[in-house]
């Protein structure tokens, strides 16, 4: 028996396997993040999940988003969360009590409902036809879209960030003043 | 299987082996360079026993590290502790994939190569911190906290400088960036004063950030052997410890390659003669020698000095540079 290894046969299989791998990593990371007892593991799971998500972006032919996902979410967000955990000095309970069964069931129900609703929504949405999508997620197109079509949202986000910086400064200032007195 | 696919697979494998070999060779012989140069600067002789002029010293070091026991201290968080050294080596080696060593010698000419290198660089910060936390050691934890503060502080000026460079090159593709600098040394980005008169300052800021991001003296707060035993690496033994050092040297190589590509014209000759791989390597290793030179010339700074340098001097300068580039681009 000869196996047909022409590109038309091989590439769909390879891409399906890649997608399964990437989606698997995302889910695995999410499960670790949600179920781990120690916060360090939760953050690591979150980072793993972000890597998987970056893979999905890459799979959707948008390498710019994939790289930004790694640069910002792992390089900044995860690191800062980890830093906060270190500073807060969380007392980690090694032998934590078994989680309440009722709470677990309730959580599962809520999550299942959310997932169901999302799946229904995905099924009903009229997706854009492929040709209309921004071409291969090129940086120039994203930049143009951000500064023209989504200009308002873009500016609003910068205002939010400015407020966050000011808030951090205020908190830090008062803390220092109290120490001196 | 068609001819093209086989060729692609062979090419992939060859580049994979080549990248890992290049990384390992550099890690081994940059340690020797470091020791030789240090001894030269301190009027000593350095390693001389193993092989002629100590040239086989890295091999001996490698054998020694591999034959040592891998200790797992009692309170260590085993999975994260073991994952640390492995994950810290992978990103810098992956970064080598997109670096164009010459006109034709590049594993993957990726359109967003520049961005990719910074994205993977960000991963190694996270992994170093995990390794420090997993060690269950006070010195390691302090070092882990320092890594975060230091790398966040220096990533900002670094990215802003690179951003202003990208504004004048209009491309994230490293190959294209080098191509734009063809001709004599006056075409290099370092001296392209027409688009940005502050270019040499930008290069200086890039170099300082390179030292800080790869945790080299005078900014080696991560290791700081006089304060923190060996910082993050305190609990690691044998090749686990060795892998951190391989990662450090490969990081230096990647940083120097990037400096060569962004500012020094990549594989182009300063006088427009015989462009090729050799020019790239000459420039890259000259920068590596400079990195070692800085390490043995300056004492370690204090941690506050380190953060002040970034937040009070480098970031305002980098932002001014960005603004100036924008203005120049708009005017001319």
Give a structural overview:
The complex is a heterodimer of chains A (181) and B (332). Chain A has helices at 7-35, 39-59, 63-88, 101-124, 139-147, 151-180. Chain A starts with 6 loop residues before the first helix and ends with a helix. Chain A has six helices and no strands. Chain A is mainly α. With 332 residues, chain B is mainly alpha-helical. Chain B has helices at 3-41, 57-67, 78-95, 113-134, 138-169, 174-179, 199-213, 225-228, 238-263, 277-297, 303-331. The longest helix of chain B is centred in the N-terminal third of the chain and has 39 residues, at 3-41. The radius of gyration of chain B is 21 Å and the shape is globular. At the A-B interface, helix 2 and helix 3 of A face helix 4 and helix 5 of B.
Number of DSSP strand runs of chain B: 0
Helix fraction of chain B by DSSP (H/I, runs of at least 4): 55-70%
Q: What ranges of chain A have pLDDT less than 50 throughout 5 or more consecutive residues? A: none
- Dominant shape of chain A: extended
> H/E order of the elements of chain A?
HHHHHH
Structural class of the helices, strands and pairings of chain A?
mainly alpha
Largest sheet of chain A: none
Would you tell me the overall average pLDDT of chain B?
83
CATH-derived topology of the largest domain in chain A: Four Helix Bundle (Hemerythrin (Met), subunit A)
H-E order of chain B:
HHHHHHHHHHH
**How many distinct folded domains of chain B?**
1
Mass-distribution shape of chain B: globular
Distance between the termini of chain A: 85 Å
Radius of gyration of chain A: 22 Å
- The first-to-last residue Cα distance of chain B is 54 Å
The number of helical runs of chain B is 11
């Amino acid at each position: 028996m000869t196996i047909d290894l022409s590109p038309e046969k091989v590439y769909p299989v390879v891409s399906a396997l890649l997608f399964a791998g990437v989606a698997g990593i995302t889910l695995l990371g999410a499960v670790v993040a949600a179920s781990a007892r120690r916060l360090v593991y939760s953050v690591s799971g979150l980072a793993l999940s972000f890597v998987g998500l970056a893979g999905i972006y890459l799979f959707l032919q948008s390498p710019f988003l994939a790289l930004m996902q790694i640069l910002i979410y792992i390089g900044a967000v995860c690191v800062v969360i980890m830093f906060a955990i270190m500073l807060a000095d969380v007392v980690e309970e090694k032998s934590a009590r078994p989680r309440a069964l009722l709470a677990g069931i309730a959580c599962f129900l809520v999550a299942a409902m959310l997932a169901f609703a999302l799946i229904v929504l995905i099924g009903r949405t009229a997706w854009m036809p492929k040709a209309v999508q921004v071409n291969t997620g090129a940086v120039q197109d994203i930049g143009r879209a951000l500064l023209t079509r989504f200009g308002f949202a873009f500016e609003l986000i910068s205002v939010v960030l400015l407020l966050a910086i000011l808030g951090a400064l205020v908190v830090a200032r008062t803390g220092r003043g109290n120490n001196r007195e | 299987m068609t001819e093209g696919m086989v060729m692609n697979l062979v090419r992939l494998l060859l580049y994979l082996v080549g990248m890992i070999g290049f990384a390992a060779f550099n890690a081994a012989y940059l340690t020797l360079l470091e020791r030789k140069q240090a001894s030269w600067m301190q009027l000593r002789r350095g390693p001389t026993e193993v092989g002629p002029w100590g040239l086989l010293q890295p091999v001996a070091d490698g054998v020694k590290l591999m034959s040592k026991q891998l200790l797992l201290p009692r309170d260590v968080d085993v999975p994260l502790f073991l994952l640390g050294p492995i994950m810290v080596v992978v990103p810098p080696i992956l970064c080598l994939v997109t670096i164009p060593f010459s006109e034709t010698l590049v594993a993957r000419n990726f359109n967003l190569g520049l961005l990719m290198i910074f994205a993977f660089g960000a991963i190694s910060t996270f992994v170093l911190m995990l390794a420090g936390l997993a060690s269950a050691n006070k010195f390691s934890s302090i070092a882990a906290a320092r890594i975060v503060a230091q790398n966040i502080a220096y990533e900002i000026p670094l990215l802003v400088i690179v951003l202003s460079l990208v504004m004048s090159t209009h491309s994230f593709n490293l190959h294209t960036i080098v191509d734009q600098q063809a001709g004599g040394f006056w075409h290099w980005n370092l001296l392209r004063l027409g688009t940005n008169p502050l270019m040499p300052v930008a290069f200086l800021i890039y170099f300082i950030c390179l030292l800080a991001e790869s945790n080299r003296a005078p900014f080696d707060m991560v290791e700081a052997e006089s304060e923190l035993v060996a910082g993050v690496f305190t609990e690691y033994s044998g090749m686990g410890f060795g892998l951190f050092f391989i990662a450090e040297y490969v990081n230096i190589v990647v940083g120097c390659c990037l400096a060569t590509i962004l500012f020094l014209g990549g594989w182009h000759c300063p006088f427009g003669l015989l462009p090729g791989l050799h020019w790239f390597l000459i420039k890259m290793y000259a920068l590596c020698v400079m990195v070692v030179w800085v390490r043995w010339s300056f004492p370690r700074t204090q941690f506050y000095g380190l953060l002040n340098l970034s937040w009070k001097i480098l970031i305002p300068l980098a932002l001014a540079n960005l603004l100036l580039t924008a203005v120049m681009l708009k005017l001319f």
